[in-house]
Every structure is written in structure tokens, then in C-alpha cells.
Design a protein that fits this description.
Blueprint lengths: L15 H19 L8 H19 L14 H11 L6 H5 L23 H11 L11 E4 L6 H18 L4 E7 L6 H36 L11 H17 L10 H12 L4 E8 L1 H8 L2 H7 L8 E9 L10 H7 L2 E4 L5 H15 L9 H11 L4 H17 L7 H21 L3 H15 L5 E2 H15 L6 H13 L3 E7 L5 E7 L3 H9 L2 H4 L5 H8 L6
Helix pairs in contact: 1-2, 5-6, 7-8, 7-9, 11-12, 13-14, 14-15, 14-16, 15-16, 16-20, 17-18, 17-19, 17-20
């Protein structure tokens, strides 16, 4: 044994001689295997391996002082975990180290429907008194709701609708509310197709429920568990009803979102809604967008359906930001609607403060908002025609900025940063959705300001505008029309256009950007047509080579 092993002071190493013998033995084994020789080990090989094994065992059980080390206190798993823990900080670990200040951020989003709506009781009560007739099986009057953005129109209508459906289930009255955002579903075809498919799905569920009931009744009759008094129908009669329901289900074809004639889509919707006894309340949000794009045929058809329906009744709730929306409707449509109007006035600063205070109690953890946060959010939003949606966005964004900075509280500084961020986001969205001609006019102004041209007038903008139109092969409008587009950009708050007198040279508009130059340019260049211009600088430098110098 001594020939092969010695112990280091730590008791855990073997001498080079032992390693050498082990290596020789293993190498010999490999060589024998490669040469297809006898696989049996020699006595010397076995003895060498045995002695090495004994030395390893001894070294693991005792140290130089003879103490037992066969049961170490630290396991291999512990060592590995410690090694991994040293560098285990990932991308999100630092971000998660701070305490969140939100309890439920969704409460501050526009899609959330609160359980109570402060300062809208009068409008809610009026809607309820109109729609209660649906719970009596009668047809409610159509309702048109007006009000600017963020005045609680949609939230109030959804709240009343949820209460209506809940009460209808309580009293077992078939009443359903279907919500459609006409800014997204903006054509008659899409509106009718979506409604048709919604009611087709509901009808299939009704059929499946009836089929299950009939199958159970037939099984009871066949097994003799039901008497004739309990089930007067025969098995044959039940089979006929099952066959009829299955045929109805198979004939219900979903409407594709494109491809069918509109009258066929209308017929599918008509048959689907009239298949089952129900009162259907159809809520058309942003209804003015539908009329602007597709005309008032949808309203005309929906409002006249009740005279043809046999089993069901339809009521319409239209929601619009435009108080003069009905002025553009055909007189026949206005007559058939026979609507009742509900106007939602803007909130004032005190009302906005109440709304924010109410929402913040559920949205945030306790004591994470300084006392000036809610009043400042309300004050900013009150300047924007009393927009509660803007106030909620401000409060949520301020909280997000505080949380990202790992602050324990959201304060006035976070609100002001949130105001700047939201305003920039608004500008970006407005610029992104401008018509192409307006983008070219705005881009002309951006190029002039970027190259140091001061006191930009309409003529200078028009010259750059013409060159850009030629470059991207766009129609060139007249200078008068370009002046009108500049006025529209001024109304949107994107540029500031002031009429100035040039004496005997007449009057002109001096134009300057009201929005950040770099961000505006980036949004404009994201348009594929403007982004394809390879070299923009010469457009300005060719005409203003001298004035472009600072």
C-alpha cells in the first residue's frame, strides 16, 4: 500500500506515482481494447486499482489529525448554489428589487369599467329609465349619447349595460348587449358581419343546451324513469326535435369579414338575431366614425328592423364626440331612430379630483402619492376640456415613471414629466395620422427650421413643398390650398402660423414649429414615401444656401 500512496497535510491528494500507475493501467486497457485482445484484467491491474481505491477512501474519511471527514457539513449542491449565487443577478433582478407602488394598474386604464362613476348619476339614471323597458319585454327607445372625449360616456354606458344584463339573468329575461367600436369596425359590412357572428355563436350555445336537455329526457323515457305526466312527448317526437335543432345548427354559417354581398350579410344577421326570443341592445361607440366612412345606411337598416322581426327586438345606443352628429343624417334615418339624447358635460377640476381620488384608492398602495399629485393631475386635465381619460393617463404615467426610477413615492416632478411625455405621444400620433399632403407641407417646414431658416413664410414653405412633391411623384396643390393646410396644422397645435403684414408686399403667414423638431422629423420619415428620399439637404440648401448658416 505504501508504495502507491502518501497523504498530503490536507489528507486529500495522492502522489504522482499513484496517478502514474492508474494512468498506465487505464492506458493499457484502452490499448488492449483497440487491438481486440483479451478483455480480462491482469492480477497486477486489479491490485493496482484496489490499492488506489483504498487510498481515496482513506483520504476522504480522515485528515492529517485523524479526524473523521466521511460526512462533510457542506454538500455539493450547496457549493454549486453558492457559486451560482455570486453572479446570478439577471436583467430584471435590479428592476424587481424596488417596491412596486401600484396595487392594480388596470384600474387607471380607459378599458376599465369602475363600479361607481362619480358625478354621472343623472346620466346613468336616465339611461336606466329608458332601458328598463327591455326587462319588461318591450323595445327600449334608441339612445344617442354626446360628449367630448373623457367625459364618461362609454364608461357610463358599459356600466348600465352590465347592470342590465345582470338584472335580466336575475329575472330570467332574455336581454343581451353587444358593444362595437366603430373606429375599428368602421363599415356597414363589418358591423353586420360581427353582429351576425356574435348571435350565431349565442344561438349555437342555446341549441347545444336544448339538445342536452332532450337527450336526457329521451334517455329517461327509454329507461322508464319518466312518467307520461312528467314527459308527454314520445321518444319519436323528441328525436324529431333533436333532428330539427341539429339541422338549424348545421345551417348557421359564419359570415366572413370580406367577400359576401352586403344584403346577404344583413340577411344572416337578421336570421341570427331573430332565431331566439330576445331584446338585443346594440351599442355603437364612435358612431360618427361609421357614418363618416360608410354613410347612414347601417343606422337606417338597424332602426327599421323591429318592424320585420318576429321573435326579437333591437335597441340602439349610439355614442359620439360630435354634438352635431345628427345634423349630417338623412331625415328618414333621424325619423326612424326616434332617439332620446343624453349629453355628458366636461368635468371641472374638483370633479376630476374626486374621480382620481376614488380610483387611486384601489390602484395604488397606501401612502405612495404625495398630496400634490392628484390636484396637479386634475388641474392639467381640466385645461384639456375636463378630460377624465387624460387625468387618469397622467396619474398612471406619473406612477409608472416613479416606479421605473425606483422611487418610493410619486410626486409633482413625476406628474410634470408625465405631462410632457403624454403631450409628446399625442403629437407623434397626430403627425403619424396626417394625410400625405399635410405631411409634405409639415416636412417642408421641418426642413427649413432644421437648416436654420428663420421667419419662415408661406412662399418659402411652398417652394420646398413643390420640390418634395416632384421627388416623390405626388400631386402639387395650389399655394392657396397649401396655405389652408398650414392653417389646419395650426389648429392641431403642430405649427404656429401668424399673419403678418409686409407693407406694400401684402400679408403672409410666418410659420414656426410648435412641436419638437427631431421627434416630428422621425415620425415623418417613418412614412414610406418621405422616407424614400435619399438626400434631403439639397432641397433647402439650393434655395437658402446663405441663410442656412447660423
Amino acid at each position: 500500500m505504501d508504495e502507491y500512496e502518501t497523504h498530503s497535510p490536507g489528507g486529500n491528494d495522492q502522489t504522482g506515482k499513484a496517478r502514474e500507475n492508474s494512468t498506465v493501467t487505464e492506458g493499457t486497457g484502452e490499448a488492449e481494447s483497440d487491438s481486440d485482445s483479451d478483455d480480462s484484467e491482469t492480477d497486477n491491474d486489479i491490485e493496482s486499482k484496489y490499492d488506489l481505491s483504498q487510498s481515496l477512501t482513506a483520504s476522504s474519511e480522515t485528515d492529517s489529525d485523524g479526524r473523521d471527514r466521511s460526512s462533510p457539513d457542506v454538500s455539493l449542491e450547496d457549493v454549486l448554489e453558492d457559486d451560482e449565487g455570486e453572479d446570478s443577478t439577471g436583467l430584471f433582478d435590479d428592476l424587481l428589487s424596488g417596491e412596486p407602488i401600484f396595487e392594480s394598474k388596470e384600474i387607471l386604464r380607459p378599458s376599465y369599467t369602475p363600479r361607481t362613476l362619480p358625478h354621472r348619476n343623472r346620466q346613468i339614471d336616465k339611461m336606466a329609465t329608458i332601458l328598463v323597458s327591455a326587462l319588461r319585454g318591450d323595445t327600449p327607445s334608441n339612445i344617442l349619447i354626446y360628449g367630448k372625449t373623457g367625459t364618461g360616456k362609454t364608461a357610463s354606458a358599459k356600466y348600465v349595460s352590465q347592470e342590465l344584463e345582470t338584472t335580466s339573468k336575475k329575472y330570467d329575461v332574455p336581454c343581451e348587449v353587444e358593444y362595437i367600436n366603430c373606429e375599428v369596425t368602421d363599415t356597414q359590412y363589418r358591423v353586420l358581419a360581427r353582429l351576425a357572428n356574435t348571435f350565431i355563436e349565442k344561438n349555437r350555445e342555446i341549441i347545444e343546451t336544448r339538445l342536452a336537455e332532450l337527450e336526457t329526457r329521451r334517455a329517461d323515457l327509454e329507461d322508464g324513469r319518466a312518467s307520461s305526466a312528467e314527459s308527454p312527448d314520445s321518444v319519436a317526437t323528441i328525436d324529431e326535435r333533436i333532428a330539427e335543432l341539429e339541422a338549424d345548427r348545421d345551417q348557421m354559417e359564419e359570415v366572413p369579414m370580406t367577400g359576401w354581398p352586403t344584403d346577404r350579410v344583413y340577411t344572416s344577421f337578421f336570421e341570427a338575431v331573430d332565431y331566439h326570443e330576445r331584446v338585443a341592445v346594440i351599442m355603437l361607440d364612435e358612431i360618427d366614425k361609421l357614418v363618416e366612412k360608410s354613410g347612414d345606411d347601417t343606422l337606417y337598416n338597424l332602426s327599421r328592423m323591429n318592424s320585420e322581426l318576429e321573435n326579437s327586438r333591437i335597441s340602439i345606443i349610439g355614442i359620439s364626440n360630435d354634438l352635431k352628429f345628427t345634423d349630417f343624417l338623412d331625415p328618414r334615418v333621424k325619423s326612424s331612430l326616434g332617439e332620446e339624447e343624453i349629453v355628458f358635460p366636461p368635468y371641472d377640476a374638483n370633479q376630476l379630483r374626486d374621480i382620481l381620488q376614488h380610483r387611486s384608492q384601489e390602484a395604488f398602495k397606501p401612502d405612495v402619492l404625495t398630496d400634490d399629485v392628484i390636484p396637479l393631475c386634475a388641474a392639467f386635465a381640466a385645461q384639456e376640456h375636463g378630460d377624465a381619460r387624460r387625468a387618469l393617463d397622467l396619474l398612471r404615467t406619473a406612477g409608472e415613471l416613479a416606479e421605473r426610477g425606483q422611487s418610493e413615492q410619486a410626486d409633482e416632478a413625476h406628474v410634470r414629466k408625465a405631462q410632457d411625455k403624454i403631450e409628446l405621444d399625442r403629437v407623434v400620433e397626430v403627425v403619424r395620422t396626417l394625410p400625405t399632403q399635410s405631411k409634405i407641407v409639415l416636412f417642408s417646414t421641418v426642413l427649413l427650421e432644421k437648416n436654420g431658416v428663420h421667419s419662415i413664410n408661406t412662399g418659402e414653405t411652398f417652394n420646398i413643398y413643390k420640390q418634395l412633391c416632384e421627388e416623390i411623384d405626388a400631386d402639387v396643390l395650389t399655394q392657396r390650398r397649401v396655405t389652408d393646410l398650414i392653417s389646419e396644422l395650426d389648429m392641431l397645435g403642430i405649427v404656429n402660423a401668424v399673419v403678418v403684414s409686409k407693407g406694400r408686399y401684402g400679408r403672409t403667414k410666418e410659420i414656426s414649429l410648435s412641436v419638437p423638431l427631431e421627434e416630428t422629423e422621425a415620425v415623418l420619415l417613418s412614412d414610406s414615401r418621405l422616407g424614400d428620399i435619399e438626400n434631403i439637404e439639397p432641397f433647402v440648401q439650393a434655395r437658402f444656401g446663405d441663410s442656412s448658416q447660423p
